[in-house]
Design goal:
single chain; mainly beta; four-stranded antiparallel sheet; three-stranded antiparallel sheet; 4% helix
Length: 100
Amino acid sequence: MTALTTNKFHIPVAVTLADAESSTVSSRKPKVAVRITDVLGASFPTMDVSVDSAMRVSDRAVIMAKTKMQPVGDGVYEVDMMAAKPGRYLNVESQTRACS
């Protein structure tokens, strides 16, 4: 597994919810937080992480696109989903790029 994390051409990453509370968005908990690590759980240097698109399921309207997530420490990035007025259900796609 260490060979995967030190490969200079391609390093697999794991993107997970930062905590169990991040799976539910509400006015009390408006932010979604994700943790980005290598396959062994080690954090990367700061990266550009963005929500590629977030779509409201009820009418398929895109409510957020190309929105940068903010680093909050130790491989965790967050975005305020309630600012986009998501309605009841939404679908989110994300994109990650290393900073140069």
